[in-house]
Amino acid sequence: MKNFVDKSTKLFPVWVILFSFWAFLEPQYWNNLDFLIIPLLSLIMFSMGLTLKIEDFIRIFKNYKIIFIAVFFQFLIMPFLGFILVKFLNIEQIIGLGIILVGCAPGGTASNVICYLAKGDVALSISITICSTVLAVFLMPILFWVYTGSNIEIPVYQMMLSIFKIVVIPVFLGVFFNNYKLIKIEKIKPGLPLLAVASIVLIITIIIGSNAEEIFKNGYQIFFVVVIHNLLGFLIGFYLCQKIKFSHKISKTIAIEIGMQNSGLATALAVKYFGSLAAIAGAFFSIWHNISGPILASYWKKKYK
Fold first, then answer.
1. For the CA atoms of the chain, what is the radius of gyration?
2. Angle at the Cα of 234 (from 66 to 54), degrees rounded to 5?
3. From residue 186, how far is each of 18, 123, 230 by CA, in Å?
4. What is the pLDDT of residues 42-88, one digit of tens each?
5. What domains lie within the chain, and their CATH numbers?
């Protein structure tokens, strides 16, 4: 069983690519399954909670400086990169708004999963995600205004409720079950990575199937910008963390948090305030960072054990 799980997990990027092509070519099988995304993410968060102990969180809050630096990098690097790419490549204004909006978003919950697969510090990743999401209530509109000259209204209650349901409740339920031994954790732990892989693949497939028409219609330029935005976030984040002498484990955790945005939130805001054309960047980012993230996780897992 363990051998099967290990082999299947190592093929993560292959599954992502294969299912992505399937969803793009035959979206009719996937474009009505959006309702599964939140339950799947919640399941992943619960499985990660099963690997955590209360001591993990106590240790993190003792190192509050790391969380502050990570969140600072998050809101410094990605909005600026989005702005520079839009200006340098002369992106159409409405599409550019969507790109910058993605850059101003907090870290996405999928970053916690990628951190888990990369053997990073999962407790730190979750703490950073929660902190950046709370701060995004204030920082996201301010940064978006700074870089675009526009003001937007953030759906504060809905965003907080979503992060609470997707991350906080499942993780703490997992931690509770793990610490109080309410279920036989050790027997199911070997299968948790495969559960994470299967859930992420399904989420990506659903996102692609739901946005296949927009992806087909709107050119390669947006996809190119999204790829560069994401990869530069990873690289610059890791480089800065290494420069300030963080360990490899913490450096890759923060870099993943920076590179992987809450593109779902950015997409929702773009549709509401600027129309579907502005939302394409968020949709592309949702697809791409869930491909680049697992590939990076596989590389870092081998390189920095």
1. 18
2. 40
3. 32, 19, 36
4. 887 788 778 777 776 676 677 789 999 999 999 999 999 999 999 99
5. 2-303 (1.20.1530.20)
